[in-house]
Each structure stands twice: as structure tokens, then as C-alpha cells.
């Protein structure tokens, strides 16, 4: 019994201790309806060198029919812009629900530089945040009301998510972008969007060299880029196999499974890069050709045609990348693995990359030609 | 005369006891003392009263010889015997004690607090002899031992300690008997009260004895090598040693196919987590961690929160209190009115509170589902304990967010690992780690895998089922 009472003797002390600890936590509450959840941010560069920053916040108050609020300001850095913007709103601005960052063309052309640092350093920002480059003015794209899509920020996010699921644009999240940025054997890429009347459309892929935008791949080549960039499991690809001038032979492949490997051979100036791609696909449409897909021999022919077409396109695309100086598919990292780190350190890869010889080889296999034989 | 003195003394003891009966046959020199509501009236008239009518004083000796009786000479013993339902017959300076005990208790009926769908539906009722008979009918073995103890200076309540010799670990039996003997209290009214007097840690929120009113559950505890206690006047029996996980087990698990039993058991563990954490997580997420809300829920959640005038922690405590009020009111009221309370509470308060902007509708879902989850617990005592823990976690979540919940869970785990039941760890078989028992704790494996008795029983005879060749 004595043991019992001595335990309760300590109780007041414990309560004081607990109370002082509890009261210490009252400062950093972020009650849901009192915070402005930034879902989309846009960055543009103004001619005077300042950043034009805009944020979109959903508004849910029952009395108001405004579904979102867009704040904008210009400031030298994004955190300073945050301070200025919070003067314009009744809500406490927080970035833990940030889903998309839109980078204006003016901003990426000048180089992102340290501005990514803000977003990678802030633990509240998810590494799954999507990055997209706007072909034009990012703030205008975000501020615009699209009559068919009441919430622009959600519209952009879903558009990017859906398209990257079908591999027609690369998956560019903050994590991937920063990883490729800091890795010296590969350059980051990001999807590009632009306004088209009442809609927003995917406008290809933005290529970066280090932190600077150097060019874009048109959306029709996006699928070939996806094959070069890495393997994927589910894709769709339309090809016009134009051999003769007047032929309209075209094939659409679905359930596309692609894998690629990069091999580096030789050393010094004789270094060669071979990219091997394997495609497995189902034919969902075959129009204008004279092949009978039910026959194994004709199927082989089609496979060869597709392989030849893809290889040619891929080589063209790699040439283009080399001209732009953007090592978006990561050839550099294979070269680095081939030559070893000390030798790589001595190589000026940025200068070497445009001159390196790259060959593409494609092997296609058609698993299934559909109901029609 | 000696008989006269003894009789007067005993009659003095029962002075002012209106329910006490004293029948005198002066011509036979016989006095009969008893409490008529404690004895079997038919048996009394058949075996004592009618023979007495037809005999003379000389024939008394032979009439008495036909009765079953014991002779007591000490006044104190005679008083105790009368109080325990015997009739005392005084004749010729001797006191004949005739056992007529027949407590008029409730009939054996279904369990109200631990209903099952399949399996036996009988439940214990208050008289100990009916409880003991239900147990002995299930374990027909002379190895089932039954030790009688008395608790309560005033109430003199009978407490029986039961165990199966050779299966039980006698250390537990001796420890339990020692603890019961040490109780010094005026009266004990229920088993659930008794076990708190013999608890290892009386200050804890968790029950340290498994109490049940199901005879099949008690029989399985006995066969599993645990000690069982039965108290006269309570429809609950208790078993020990017990662990936290035993409170998640229902007899139904064993009567259904093993896969269904396993699924239900996993469901109960999920329900446990929902009960203690769901409201707390709502509070911490809406107060501190808006990052954790899925995008699709964000708008609905902040829309319904935007009308609420209170911070989430007060909102949650308010609704939890309302739910507890409803539950307590429903438990105290007759069943029919209880249903009305459910409707009033569920529909009127729930719906109106949201429409009036008093709480958010997501919170109503959260609070209701954690209340429902708490009723999934087969043991009412445990279910009440974890409902109380939830309040602590809500307050911690409102002050520190997820950190607070983590601190709360850490304290809970520390406390649980500190607990013992009859000296054995409350967290067996997790700590100490006994993987062999897991088959019967976290899942309900097929019977061929449950060949061993639970390790917590420390049985000298651990094999329960002979493996098939």
C-alpha cells in the first residue's frame, strides 16, 4: 500500500511537467480552414531580372462562389514573394499541398539555378510534385479561366498525371528532375504545355542542359523519346510506314512494352554508343498496307518495317539531342560507367557529347494482331 | 437446561430478523430454525415437517435417523450454517443441521454482453452452484478441482478457485488463493469488483483478469491450463493469467471455419486501431498536418471544416462526448427506450449538428466509425478501456499533432509492457516472444496447428492435441 501512495505523490509534479510541455506546442497550429493550400506555383522572369511568381489556392467558403484565388507578385526570390503574397490574403500560405510547379519559358531559358533549392529544401514540399514548362507565360496560363475546366490548377495536374501514365510525356516530378539535375551523366527533362484557346495542350518535351532550357521535342516524337529514355510497360504508338510517296500504310501499336539498353564500346575518339531497344506490342490498327497479318511471314515483315522505322527515327532524335547539347537519355552515365570515374572526371562531357557516335537498333515483336487475322 | 441456553443465544443473534423462522414443537421438545427464502420449502415439508407431525417424542430418535444431517455444537457454526441456507433442528440438547440450501436465482439464460452466433448460448447466472454445475458439466473430470474461499467480513461471499490438476501450473493457483485470502473488505458484490482487489496493477486502465459469463469460454480456459475463479452472486467468472490479446478472442472464432475465424480476428485488431486512433488522426491532420490529406478529400474536408466555429480538437471532443452520452444513456435505459435514444442520437444530433455548422460531416463519420469499431471488441471491459484511451490520444493530437499521437502510443506500449497478470507478462506472446502462440492469437489457425496449450499458462503438460501420423 505504501508503494501505491508514493506513486500518487509524484502526480502533481508530473502534471506540472506535462502542462508546461503541452502549452509549448500551441504556436505552430495550421488548422485546415485557416491555411491557404498552394496547389500550383508559376515562375516567370521579368525583364528587370525579378521573378514573377503566382500561386493558386482553392477557396472553399460556402458563401463565395469563387473556386480559387490566384495571387501574384514580383520579387527577387520565391520566399520573399511568399511574404509579399501573404499580405494579399486572409489565409496562412503553406506549400505542403503543392502539386504542380509551372516554369515559364522566360524563366527556364535563363536557367533555373538556385531556385530549385527552395523547393527541395522545404520538407513540406512533396518530392512527387510535378514540374512542367510552359511554352509562353506561366502566370497567364495559370491565371486564365478555362470555361470548360473550372479549376485550372486541378486541370493541369490531372492532365500531366494522365499523360505521364501513358508515357507520352516523361514523368517529371521534383524528385526525378532534381536527381537528373545533380547527376552529371544525364540532363533533366520536363513536359511542356501551352494554352490552346479554351484548353491547355501538351506541347512536347522540354530539354534542359544542366539547368537551362535548350530546346523541345515535338509531341509526335514523344513516344520515341520515351523508348529511348527508359523502359516502360504500357504505351501506345502510331506509325506511318511511308516507303513510297503515295502509300498510306500506317500501323497503331498498343500494349507497348519497351526496354532499352545502352552499350558503350571503344575508347577515346573511337568511342561508340549502341542503343538497343526491344518492343513488344499488339497491333490495334493496320491500314493501307498489303500485308496479311495472319501470315507469320507477313507479320515478320511488318515487324522489320517497324524496327527499321523506329531505328531511323530514334537516330534522328538522338542527333537532335546532341545538337542541342542535352543528354536527356543519360548516355553520359553509361559512358562514365564504361570508362571509370577518374577518366570521366578528366573528360569534358558537355563538349564531347555532341560529337559521339550513337547507333540505334530496334527489335520488334508483335504478340497479337487482334480479332482480325 | 443446556438446549434452552444455546437456543436462546442463537435466537438473540437473529433478533430483529423478520425473515427468520422459528417453529417450536413443545410436545416433541423440538425447535426448528431457518430462513424460509433460502431453503427448499418442498424439501423441508417433505423431509422434516410432515414426519414430525406423525411421531411422538419417543419416536423422535428413529425419525431423526432418517434425515441427512450433521451435528454442530458451537453456536458460531450453527449461525453460519443457518445463514448459508440450512435448517437447524434442536432436540435433546443437540443441534442437527439439515442442508436445505436452494437459492432462488435467475434461470440460465442467454448472455447479454457476450452474444455469439454459433456455439452454446447458455450463460452463467448469479448462484455459484449453478455456475459450478455449468462448468462441471463441460469438464467431467475428477481432475477439475474446486477450492472454496470466503471474501468479505460482512458479506461472507463464497469464492471458488477452479483448476484442472496436472494441466495447471500450481504456482498460479497458489498465488491467486494467496491474493484472495489477503483481501480485507466488508463486502464484494461482483466478480469484476473482486478481480480489481487482486489485480497486479490496480491503477492501470486495462483489465488484468479475463472475465466472462460464457461457460464454454471458461471451460476452454480451464482446459488450456488457466486458473478460474467463480464468485457466488455474480454471473461472471474470471480466468488468469491473461494477456491483452485474449480480449480480442471470441468463442465464435473457434466454432466457425478457421479462415472465417482468422478474418474476424484480424478485423478486431483493425477495429482496435480505428477505435484508439481514428479521431486522433483526424484532429492531428486537420490541425497540423494538412500535407497528409489526399487531394481528392481536401476540398470536401476543408469545405465542411470552414463552417465549424471550433478548432478540431474541441470539435472532436464535443462529438466524442455526445457519442459517449448516447452510449451511456442507451445502456441505462430499458431496451425499447434505448432504441429511441439511438435514433434520436444518430439521426437528429448527427444530421442537425452538421447542418447547423456545429461539426464537420467528416468528423461525424470518423467519430461514428470509431464508436462502432469499439463495440467490435468481444469483451465489454476492454472495449470501455480502449474508448477511454482514445480521449487521451485526441487531446495529445490536438496539442502536438502526430508527434503527440506517437508519444501517446509510446506511453501505451510502455505501460502495457509494464503490466502483469498473476505475475506473467500482459503482452505474452509478443513480449516475451513466443511465436508458437501466434497461430492462436493473431490468426485462428486450423486446429491441427493448435496442438499446444498457450505458453502463458506455463502448463506442465503442454500438449493439447496428439498430432496425426
UniProtKB/TrEMBL annotation, chain B:
InterPro entries: Spore_Ger, UPF0353/GerABKA_families
Protein name: Spore germination protein
One Pfam family, short name: GerA
Statement: the UniProt record of this protein carries the keyword Repressor: no
Superkingdom classification of source: Bacteria
Keyword DNA-binding recorded: no
UniProt keyword list: Membrane, Transmembrane, Transmembrane helix
Gene Ontology annotations of biological process type: spore germination
Transmembrane portions of the chain: 266-290, 362-381, 393-416
Family: Belongs to the GerABKA family.
GO CC terms in record: membrane
Amino acid at each position: 500500500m505504501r508503494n501505491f501512495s508514493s506513486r500518487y505523490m509524484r502526480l502533481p509534479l508530473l502534471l506540472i511537467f506535462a502542462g508546461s510541455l503541452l502549452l509549448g506546442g500551441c504556436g505552430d497550429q495550421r488548422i485546415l480552414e485557416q491555411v491557404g493550400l498552394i496547389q500550383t506555383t508559376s515562375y516567370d522572369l521579368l525583364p528587370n531580372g525579378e521573378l514573377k511568381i503566382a500561386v493558386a489556392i482553392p477557396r472553399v467558403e460556402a458563401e463565395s462562389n469563387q473556386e480559387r484565388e490566384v495571387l501574384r507578385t514580383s520579387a527577387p526570390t520565391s520566399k520573399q514573394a511568399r511574404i509579399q503574397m501573404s499580405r494579399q490574403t486572409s489565409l496562412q500560405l503553406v506549400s505542403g499541398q503543392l502539386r504542380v510547379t509551372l516554369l515559364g519559358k522566360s524563366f527556364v531559358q535563363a536557367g533555373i539555378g538556385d531556385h530549385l533549392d527552395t523547393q527541395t529544401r522545404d520538407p513540406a514540399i512533396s518530392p512527387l510534385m510535378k514540374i512542367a514548362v510552359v511554352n509562353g507565360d506561366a502566370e497567364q496560363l495559370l491565371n486564365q479561366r478555362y470555361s470548360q475546366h473550372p479549376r485550372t490548377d486541378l486541370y493541369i495536374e490531372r492532365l500531366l498525371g494522365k499523360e505521364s501514365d501513358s508515357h507520352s510525356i516523361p514523368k517529371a516530378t521534383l524528385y526525378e528532375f532534381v536527381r537528373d539535375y545533380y547527376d552529371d551523366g544525364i540532363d533533366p527533362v520536363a513536359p511542356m504545355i501551352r494554352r490552346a484557346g479554351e484548353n491547355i495542350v501538351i506541347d512536347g518535351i522540354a530539354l534542359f542542359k544542366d539547368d537551362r532550357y535548350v530546346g523541345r521535342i515535338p509531341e509526335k516524337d514523344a513516344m520515341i523519346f520515351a523508348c529511348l529514355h527508359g523502359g516502360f510497360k504500357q504505351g501506345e504508338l502510331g506509325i506511318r510506314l511511308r516507303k513510297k510517296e503515295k502509300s498510306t500504310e500506317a500501323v497503331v501499336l498498343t500494349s507497348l512494352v519497351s526496354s532499352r539498353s545502352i552499350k558503350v564500346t571503344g575508347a577515346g575518339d573511337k568511342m561508340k554508343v549502341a542503343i538497343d531497344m526491344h518492343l513488344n506490342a499488339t497491333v490495334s490498327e493496320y491500314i493501307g498496307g498489303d500485308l496479311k497479318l495472319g501470315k507469320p511471314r507477313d507479320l515478320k515483315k511488318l515487324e522489320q518495317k517497324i524496327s527499321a522505322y523506329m531505328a531511323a527515327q530514334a537516330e534522328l532524335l538522338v542527333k537532335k539531342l546532341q545538337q542541342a547539347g542535352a543528354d536527356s537519355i543519360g548516355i553520359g552515365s553509361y559512358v562514365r560507367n564504361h570508362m571509370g570515374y577518374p577518366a570521366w572526371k578528366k573528360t569534358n562531357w558537355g563538349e564531347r557529347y555532341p560529337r559521339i557516335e550513337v547507333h540505334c537498333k530496334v527489335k520488334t515483336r508483335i504478340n497479337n494482331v487482334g480479332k482480325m487475322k | 437446561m443446556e438446549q434452552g441456553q444455546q437456543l436462546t443465544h442463537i435466537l438473540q443473534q437473529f433478533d430483529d430478523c423478520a425473515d427468520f423462522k422459528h417453529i417450536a414443537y413443545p410436545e416433541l421438545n423440538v425447535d426448528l430454525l431457518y430462513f424460509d427464502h433460502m431453503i427448499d420449502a418442498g424439501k423441508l415439508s417433505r423431509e422434516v415437517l410432515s414426519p414430525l407431525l406423525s411421531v411422538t417424542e419417543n419416536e423422535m430418535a428413529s425419525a431423526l435417523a432418517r434425515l441427512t444431517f450433521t451435528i454442530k455444537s458451537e453456536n458460531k457454526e450453527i449461525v453460519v450454517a443457518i445463514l448459508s441456507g440450512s435448517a437447524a433442528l434442536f432436540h435433546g440438547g443437540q443441534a442437527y443441521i439439515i442442508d436445505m440450501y436452494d437459492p432462488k436465482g435467475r434461470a440460465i439464460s442467454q448472455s447479454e454482453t457476450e452474444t455469439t452466433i454459433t456455439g452454446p448460448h447458455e450463460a452463467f447466472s448469479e448462484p455459484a452452484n449453478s455456475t459450478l454445475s455449468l462448468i462441471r458439466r463441460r469438464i467431467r473430470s475428477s481432475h477439475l478441482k474446486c477450492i472454496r474461499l470466503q471474501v468479505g467480513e460482512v458479506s461472507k461471499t463464497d469464492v471458488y478457485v477452479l483448476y484442472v490438476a496436472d494441466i495447471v501450473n500450481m504456482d498460479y493457483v497458489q498465488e491467486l488463493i494467496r491474493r484472495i485470502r489477503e483481501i480485507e473488505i466488508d463486502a464484494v458484490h461482483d466478480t469484476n469488483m473482486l478481480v480489481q482487489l487482486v489485480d497486479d496493477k490496480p491503477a492501470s486502465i486495462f483489465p488484468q483478469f479475463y472475465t466472462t459469463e460464457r461457460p464454454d469460454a471458461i471451460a476452454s480456459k480451464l482446459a488450456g491450463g488457466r486458473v478460474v475463479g467463480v464468485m457466488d452472486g455474480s454471473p461472471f467468472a474470471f480466468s488468469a493469467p491473461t494477456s491483452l490479446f485474449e480480449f480480442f478472442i471470441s468463442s465464435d472464432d473457434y466454432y466457425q471455419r478457421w479462415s472465417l475465424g482468422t478474418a474476424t480476428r484480424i478485423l478486431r485488431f483493425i477495429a482496435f486501431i480505428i477505435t484508439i486512433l481514428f479521431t486522433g488522426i483526424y484532429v492531428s491532420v486537420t490541425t497540423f498536418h494538412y500535407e497528409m490529406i489526399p487531394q481528392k478529400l481536401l476540398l470536401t474536408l476543408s469545405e465542411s471544416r470552414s463552417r465549424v466555429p471550433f478548432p478540431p480538437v474541441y470539435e472532436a471532443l464535443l462529438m466524442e462526448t455526445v457519442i459517449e452520452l448516447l452510449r451511456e444513456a442507451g445502456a441505462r435505459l430499458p431496451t425499447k427506450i434505448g432504441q429511441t435514444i439511438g435514433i434520436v442520437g444518430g439521426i437528429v444530433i448527427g444530421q442537425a449538428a452538421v447542418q447547423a455548422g456545429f461539426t464537420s460531416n467528416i468528423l461525424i463519420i470518423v467519430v461514428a466509425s470509431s464508436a462502432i469499431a469499439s463495440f467490435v471488441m468481444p469483451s465489454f471491459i476492454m472495449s470501455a478501456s480502449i474508448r477511454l484511451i482514445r480521449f487521451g490520444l485526441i487531446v495529445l493530437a490536438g496539442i502536438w499533432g502526430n508527434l503527440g499521437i506517437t508519444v501517446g502510443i509510446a506511453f501505451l506500449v510502455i505501460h502495457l509492457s509494464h503490466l502483469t497478470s498473476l505475475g506473467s507478462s500482459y503482452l505474452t506472446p509478443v513480449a516475451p516472444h513466443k511465436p508458437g502462440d501466434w497461430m492462436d492469437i493473431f490468426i485462428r489457425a486450423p486446429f491441427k496447428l493448435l496442438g499446444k496449450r498457450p505458453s502463458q499458462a506455463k502448463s506442465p503438460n503442454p500438449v493439447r492435441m496428439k498430432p496425426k501420423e
